[in-house]
Amino acid sequence: MPDHPSGHLSGHPSERPAGRAPEHLYAVLAAQRVLPVLRDADADEAVRHTAVLLAAGCRAVELTTSTPGWAAAVTRTAALSDRHGRPALIGMGTVTTTAQAETALDAGAAFLVSPYPAPEVRAVAVRREAVFIEGGFTPGEIAAAVRAAGVAKVFPAHVGGPGFVRSLRAVLPGAVIVATGGIRPAEVADWLAAGATAVGIGGGLPSDPGELAAVFAGAAAPCCAPCDAAAGH
Per residue in 167-209, pLDDT tens? Predict the structure, then answer.
């Protein structure tokens, strides 16, 4: 588990700079552990899908720029709340350009995610004080992302397997590591045991509401005190 402190974000994602308290997002990821990555056919489908996830116990959701109308989808989903009434934390994934980064943050994205090192996106994140989960695969790329922001996305994670994350954790003990790519829900526990802070899931989540809720409940850990109080824990 990463050793970042847990902060508390007040207000709604669209009403504040996206990254004023990155530690809070890191705490949410460490508590949620399963980060859905949505690649939907259009904005309406993305909104519907996100609403279902929020009702099932999810709070942080990653949309992607592969969805037509993604900026509108961010704005609409950023206005939603989870089942405990806490503001949704909507991330924008597959962000690789300055224009995409600016548009996502203007639309209300709480964090940005890239599939590989993206210096131009990092520059926008620094200037706008936004949370950026930068992708990488080699130890050097991942370490550079961690040095920049304390967090990195390991992609494509399935190529290296849980053992690769275990080796990374040994030399990056305080990092927030999000393993993404080719991971099925049934494999989440193996990746968490290897040291991943959270696991990005792009497909395979159950459609049945009860089964979906069980996925999040089974992986969940405590978050920060204000969040747990809001959830009635």
Answer: 999 999 999 999 999 999 999 999 999 999 999 999 999 999 9
Q: 78: which 2 tokens?
A: 């950023």
Amino acid at 116: Y
Structure tokens at 193: 């045991």
Q: Which of 23, 134, 153, 187 is catalytic?
A: 153
The answer to whether the beta carbons of residues 51 and 176 sit under 8 Å apart is: no
CA pair distance 222, 233, nearest whole angstrom:
9
Quick check: helix, strand or coil at residue 89? strand
Per-residue pLDDT, 21: 62
DSSP symbol at 187? G
| Selected catalytic residue, list 23, 62, 134, 187 | 62
Cα–Cα distance between 55 and 153 in angstroms, integer?
A: 26
Radius of gyration of the chain (CA): 16
Q: Which amino acid makes up residue 134? A: E
Residue 103 and residue 83: Cα distance in Å, rounded?
A: 28
> Does residue 134 carry a catalytic annotation?
no
Mapped onto helix, strand or coil, the DSSP state of residue 122 is: helix
187 catalytic? Reply is no
Closest CA to 66 of 96, 89, 36, 88: 96
Q: What is the DSSP secondary structure assignment for residue 81, as one 8-state letter? A: B
The answer to whether the CB of 112 falls within 8 A of the CB of 99 is no
For residue 3, pLDDT over 70 is answered with: no
Residue 198 token pair: 């959270």
Tokens of 53: 């996830």
